[in-house]
Amino acid sequence: MIKLIVYGLKNGHPTNLDLKIGVTELRNPHRIRKLQELTGFDEAVKLDVRSAPNYQECLRKWVERIHKAHVKHLIDCHQCGGEHTQMTVGVHCLAGRHRSVVVAQDLAAALSGKHNVSIEYRDVRK
Which residues are 90's β-sheet partners? Predict the structure, then answer.
């Protein structure tokens, strides 16, 4: 099980994260006036984030990073005799409303073929 927690850096990191994925290298839709009040659930924001020239390469890199971390997490849990197999991954941008929301949705879609994935949106409505 992989749990993705979407959050904004300006509100602080959640505790108990096994891995942090920062997406601030992507351009910020908040800088476009018509997108400021929208969130990563809105099609206009999704299109803007996904149209970044480096988006697909970044997504591929993040998926690979999560896969590797998950394998290590499971091995560590097994060696310690623990039953805790859920890995918690934080996905963050500045506010947790635009880029991180879109990226988390795409990460979940990419990972769902091999893993059970859930998403918690901590700051999307702040």
Answer: 5, 20
Cβ pair 45, 102 in contact under 8 A: yes
pLDDT in tens, 54-96: 999 999 999 999 888 877 766 565 556 666 678 899 999 999 9
Task: Retrieve residue 112's tokens.
Answer: 């769902």
Would you call 21 helix, strand, or coil by DSSP?
A: strand
13-62 tens-digit pLDDT: 998 898 999 999 998 998 999 999 999 999 999 999 999 999 999 999 99
Contact 94, 8 (CB under 8 A): yes
The whole-angstrom separation of Cα 61 and Cα 44 is 24
